[in-house]
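User: Please fill in residues for this 310-position structure.
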């Protein structure tokens, strides 16, 4: 069943409401959507919503995380394979393989080894706040207790981050697809009444959850899909009693060119930085502390000659 046939064509008037109407990769879906509803005729921007005090102003803090030498090499290899697939004449033939490569590269970035230490260092300097969200990836990460060669024995990132949060004063609950519907409902109830002060989530909190009291988010993993990071930002900008501002900590991955042994991977590394900067620029542009974000990233941007991208 096609998109157009699944909607009532007999309707004389059609109204579509969405914070993220366009798909960032699938042009066919975009064409179907706009052929049914027509062009966008009205917009209410995030900037307007914050100015009108419909949403909460927010602080945005970037936490730079460099890939290890092994991760940088693996990233370059995957990027080369992805580029080869995308340049093939018959892209549909390699669609499944391309999807698996993109997923593997996304997991590599999401579960980067140095994020663990970066989070520990950050939490040591912060006061524990209730209504905190930790967004993590679905990959595995070396916690220092397993043989690196046995990837299947490495703990999932959500397990590692949950443990770190617990060690620094949080009472976290996991919120993933592995928890059943009833269990997730109970978790949300406990979160709202303060029995747990934080949620560690993979994707389940991206859409459809309305908890206005949320005021702090640690984004340790994020896809390149704008829909995801726009929805995640929206989770903590809802107005709530006694909530004056919200805070986002975004763990931004890069390859440290000064210490990178792979001299032939410059293009893929620059593409990684540009990809991460799309999210950073979106988040930073309306934050209370834009200049702080720029100053934090400036030394890294200088390595890539990308200072004008933010």
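Assistant: Residues filled in for all 310 positions:
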């Amino acid at each position: 069943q096609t998109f157009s046939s699944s909607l009532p064509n007999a309707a004389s008037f059609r109204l579509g409401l969405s914070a993220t109407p366009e798909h960032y990769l699938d042009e066919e879906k975009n064409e179907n959507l706009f052929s049914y509803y027509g062009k966008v005729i009205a917009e209410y921007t995030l900037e307007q919503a914050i100015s009108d005090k419909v949403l909460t102003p927010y602080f945005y803090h970037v936490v730079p995380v460099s890939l290890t030498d092994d991760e940088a090499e693996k990233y370059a290899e995957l990027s080369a394979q992805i580029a080869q697939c995308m340049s093939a004449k018959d892209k549909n033939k390699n669609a499944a393989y391309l999807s698996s490569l993109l997923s593997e590269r996304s997991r590599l970035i999401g579960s980067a080894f140095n994020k663990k230490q970066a989070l520990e260092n950050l939490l040591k300097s912060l006061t524990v706040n209730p209504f905190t969200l930790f967004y993590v990836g679905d990959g595995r990460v070396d916690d220092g207790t397993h043989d690196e060669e046995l990837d299947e024995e490495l703990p999932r990132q959500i397990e590692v981050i949950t443990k770190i949060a617990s060690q620094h004063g949080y009472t976290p609950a996991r919120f993933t697809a592995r928890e059943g519907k009833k269990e997730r409902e109970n978790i949300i109830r406990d979160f709202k009444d303060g029995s747990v002060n934080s949620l560690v989530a993979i994707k389940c909190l991206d859409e459809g959850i309305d908890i206005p009291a949320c005021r702090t988010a640690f984004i340790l993993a994020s896809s390149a899909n704008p829909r995801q990071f726009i929805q995640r930002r929206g989770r903590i900008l809802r107005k709530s009693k006694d909530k004056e501002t919200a805070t986002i900590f975004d763990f931004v991955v890069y390859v440290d060119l000064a210490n990178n042994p792979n001299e032939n991977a410059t293009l893929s590394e620059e593409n990684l930085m540009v990809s991460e900067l799309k999210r950073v620029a979106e988040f930073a542009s309306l934050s209370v502390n834009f200049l702080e974000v720029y100053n934090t990233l400036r030394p890294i941007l200088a390595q890539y000659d990308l200072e004008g991208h933010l």
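For context: The radius of gyration is 21 Å.
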